[in-house]
Amino acid sequence: MSFENLRIKKPLQRALENEGYTAPTPIQALAIPHLLENRDLIGIAQTGTGKTAAFVLPILQKISDIRKHSKPRMPRVLVLAPTRELAAQIGDSFATYGQFIKFRHTVIFGGVGQGPQVKALSHGVDVLIATPGRLLDLLDQGYVKLSAVEFFVLDEADRMLDMGFMKDVYRIVSLLPVKRQSLFFSATMSPQISEIARKLLTSPILVEVSPQATTVEKIDQFIFFVDQENKDKLLLGLLQHNHLTSVLVFTRTKHRANKVALLLNRNNIEADAIHGNRSQNQRTKAMDDFRSGSVRVLVATDIAARGIDVEDISHVINYDIPNEPENYVHRIGRTARAGSDGTAYSFCAADERDYLRNIEKLIRQKIEIAEHHYHSEKAKNAIGDAARPAPRKQHGPGQRARPQKQGRQYPVSGKPYPAKGR
Ligand code: AMP
Predict the structure, then answer these.
(1) In this predicted structure, which of 260-274, 277-291, 297-311 has the lowest mean pLDDT?
(2) Which of 36, 173, 283, 393 sees the fewest Cβ atoms within 10 Å?
(3) Whose CA is closest to 420, among 47, 140, 126?
(4) Whose CA is nearest to atom 13 of ligand 1?
(5) Which of 1, 16, 17, 21 to mutate to test the pocket of ligand 1 (most atoms within 8 A of CB)?
(6) All domains in the chain, ordered by first residue
(7) 334 CA distance to ligand 1 centroid (A)?
């Protein structure tokens, strides 16, 4: 299979050659023919499968086939993404794959001044990539109109749902023309997700690639049973090894991300943190430094890490075990991008033992146990209450401590995470 077989136009093929892509990935091979035939599509695919090019290429092909002069404030293509990083990356993909065709695009997201975004829209763009919160702000102010949208893409729909964006998404969709081509991508399929897809799409084709449980198979995974108080020492010890060249460390909260980055800096290891409390500039700089190799370790929370697209991450280290098992798959998938293998280390303390059991159930495999200096039998054998985090205390007057709900938990602030515009 080649891009030529897929009827991708020459200028787009040239761009792909420049990128060194010789053949389409499975999601591209499966989705592109349907998209070129104007079908609505549900793509079940994770980041790392090449899903972005699967929608960017046919869209570019179509807008360049029917070249219209895009009117000020009236984009022809709308792509919604849950995070700024992901939106920016999709924007970069449009720029890369569309380098030899004439079109205009812009990316809008919250957390930065709206002036330049408003200006770009007023000049007229063909493709608008947006996070829902900022798009609604600009729609309410009349800086953008959606009545000329021909192609609508909802990317990472499951994240949109997790992050509480669905109400905003429905409002945005209500402003789109009924006659449009709609594309819907999600890493996972649940009854809720398929209900949303049913509302947004018309007779869609379903394309699914690499179910979650199999994508992790080519990653070398190890569990380090360790007591919480020894995690710092274990991390510093591992980072003594030079083959950990480019390391993504995950923590469960923003506070812990900062603490770990600080610990590493104090020990002369170049590290930075990326999470929702950092400004857009700080996040962009951290990403650029990590990509260029001037920062060896990037410490991230789950949501901030969505859309991190850095090739050659040698190791993912789960400093904390994720409380949602799907996040384990998302996290470690960062180290095996576009065909390369990777390594993932997970630190499991006693009160995370049950999280680990849930992960092993999801991926249907037992993760190998690493032998190391700080090994904790207590963590390894924890069961019952000892295998879960202690219930959080309520401090308000008259409030009693409630057992913590199983399943989703929110970081230190105790507030639903994240807020709009992230
Ligand atoms: P995505 O799933 O869209 O985040 O893409 C994952 C990575 O795969 C990105 O770094 C892309 O640049 C890369 N990629 C996309 N399509 C191809 C392809 N056909 N061949 C090789 N790499 C690709």
Answers:
(1) 297-311
(2) 393
(3) 140
(4) 50
(5) 21
(6) 10-208 (3.40.50.300), 219-387 (3.40.50.300)
(7) 12
Q: Report the Cα–Cα distance between both ends of the chain, in Å, rounded.
A: 38
Q: Rounded distance, CA 282 to CA 288, Å?
A: 10
Atom of ligand 1 nearest to the CA of 47: 2
The alpha carbon dihedral of 282, 331, 54, 157 has a sign of negative
The H or E element containing residue 41 is: strand 41-44
Q: How far apart are CA 11 and CA 166, in angstroms?
A: 36
Pairing mode of beta strands 271-274, 247-250 = unpaired
Cα 317 to averaged position of ligand 1 atoms, centre (Å) = 23
pLDDT in tens, 3-29: 999 999 999 999 999 888 888 988 999
Test site for ligand 1: of 13, 19, 28, 215, most ligand atoms within 8 A of the Cβ: 19
Ligand 1 pocket at CB < 6 A: 21, 24-25, 28, 47-53, 309, 311, 337-338
Ligand 1 midpoint to CA 18 (Å): 13
Distance (Å, rounded) from C-alpha 107 to C-alpha 92?
9
Which residue type sits at 109? Answer: F
Query: Do 329 and 216 meet the contact criterion of CB atoms below 8 Å apart?
Result: yes
3-class secondary structure per residue, 65-121: HCCCCCCCCCCCEEEECCCHHHHHHHHHHHHHHCCCCCCCEEEECCCCCCHHHHHHH
219 CA to centre of ligand 1 in angstroms: 18
Least confident of 42-46, 235-239, 281-285, 369-373: 281-285
Residue pair 303/274 in contact by the 8 Å Cβ criterion: no
**Distance from the CA of 2 to the center of ligand 1, in angstroms?**
15
Q: Which amino acid does the sequence have at 139?
A: L
pLDDT digits (tens, 9 = 90+) for 161-206: 888 899 999 999 999 999 999 999 998 888 889 999 999 999 999 9
Q: Which of 5-9, 214-218, 301-305, 376-380 has the lowest mean pLDDT?
A: 214-218
Atom 21 (ligand 1) nearest CA: 21
